[in-house]
Amino acid sequence: MSSFNGQATLPSPPPSEPEIHTSFRSAIATISVGAPDLHPLKTKLDAISKNGFSGIELFYDDLHRVAKELQDRDSERSGGISQQGTHTTEKYDIKAAFEVKSMCEQRDLQIVSFQPFRNYEGLLCKSEQARRITELQHWTKLATILGNDVFILIPSSFLGESKTVGDRERLVEDLTLAADIACPVRLAYEALAWGTHVNKWEESWDIVQRVDRKNFGICLDTFNIAAGIWADPATISGRSSEKADQNLQQSLQRLMHDVDPDRVFCIQLADGERVDPSATFLHIPNQPTLLGWSRNSRLFPFEEDRGGYLPVLEIARAVTNGIGFSGWVSMEVFSRTTKDDRPIVPSEHAARAARSWDKIIKSLEKTSL
């Protein structure tokens, strides 16, 4: 499968033909422009807005930091007496949600999603399951405050098999309950490539169909699709097998044939960096190799100069034009580069994302399936 360079351009289509990109709206995850503990959310939102994005995927860690700041402010006013110890209470989360919503409105940014609600389905411990259900009720309240059309992203669980079951009926039961609890707030289910029991888009789509709730859909992520089918960062070639290209093409053909675009709540774009197979973060005990790679080495599409090598454009074609998708397309990049404490990091990453967005849209416009 050939690499793409995104350099050539073609004339604009005739006026009678609508431009493909008019059906897409650009978003970016707040985690993709800076670490929550190093870069204030206001700074990140400023960078995102200035670089032309219309929406954000809000990470809970960013909301948590705002909540902690509000708590500290109240503590100072009360003479240093904390009302809740070291943890942010639901009260401060709610205050923070109103604050974040206001911050976004001031910058003309829409909050697309609130995420990630991790490791929910298939829990063996009944008390932990009950705790997570209560937590989901709280998240639903926060999502309602954040906006009328915010969805909660639920990635597939990557807890060990000693803590979760993989029985498909049980997973469907848990996620159906989640959809009913959250209704009318939407939930998007995403197959993480390192998920314990669900790690392919096919599996997540099967679950979405079985749940069969209008507010329960799927999120398709180019990185997770490629990592689950095509890539293996721990090999010299960077690929999973000699049949990686063939396996990916067959999977994308199924995706374009099977997936209902109305059930796709968001598309996420990211490439992956070609790394040294002996890199330390790939070999952390009790951690999946793909998880270490994802957290440290994602890139924005068209960043081959930084080591990007995944077939992102091919996947992006399938999950957008290929299924007739229209809606939010978000840049979701996790990287060790966001953990740099320089104040300019959010601006640098938002500018990189904007360049990537421009190239990917131009490539989708000039490429027909």
Automatic annotation (TrEMBL):
Pfam families: AP_endonuc_2. It comes from Byssochlamys spectabilis (strain No. 5 / NBRC 109023). Residues 1-10 have a biased composition (Polar residues). Residues 1-20 are annotated as: Disordered. This is Xylose isomerase-like TIM barrel domain-containing protein. Gene3D superfamilies: Divalent-metal-dependent TIM barrel enzymes. Residues 45-357 form the Xylose isomerase-like TIM barrel domain.
